[in-house]
Amino acid sequence: QVQLVESGGGLVQAGGSLRLSCAASARTFRINDMGWFRQAPGKEREFVAASIWRGASTYYTDFAKGRFTISRDNAKNTLYLQMNSLKPEDTAVYYCNVVRAYGGSWTYEYDSWGQGTQVTVSS
Questions:
Q1: Please, which pLDDT band fits residue 1 given cuts at 50, 70 and 90?
Q2: Contact 14, 123 (CB under 8 A)
Q3: How far apart are CA 93 and CA 22, in angstroms?
Q4: pLDDT for 53-111, tens place per residue?
């Protein structure tokens, strides 16, 4: 049974920052690539960023580049997403999951999602 717990979301003004966290089991986290996804109201879920478990390689979608930073603490089995210069269009529920490369981008591994964490950015 895979358990993923997201936290750190909240309400911020445009230009503000948030740091999201994703706690996973040691077995899940240790050997897997991890990533963040988000789903805004009325839109499909989309990929945000990925972190490769072996080494420090990271990948971002265009909207995240230069503003978001994904990182992982293997000792704590925790994935992070530092979000700076937030914009109203970043408003969404953010989820973490094990990820795999797919069609030039990334897809999730597990169908069972956590509750996610709500990020709301006001104008």
A1: low
A2: yes
A3: 13
A4: 887 799 999 999 999 999 999 889 999 999 999 999 999 999 999 999 888 889 998 88
Tell me the two tokens of residue 109: 């591994």
Q: What is each CA distance from 48 to 1, 55, 60, 75, 117, in whole angstroms? A: 24, 19, 6, 23, 14
Spell out the alpha helix ranges (H) of the chain: 26-30
- Sequence-ordered strand ranges (E) for 1-123: 4-7, 10-13, 18-24, 34-39, 46-51, 58-60, 68-73, 78-83, 92-102, 105-108, 117-122
Contacting residues for 60 by C-beta, under 8 A, at least 6 apart? 48, 49, 68, 70
Strands 34-39 and 58-60: unpaired
Instruction: Specify the pLDDT at position 55.
Output: 72
- Beta-bridge mates of residue 97: 35
Average pLDDT over residues 7-31: 94
**Joined tokens for residue 31:** 């050997």
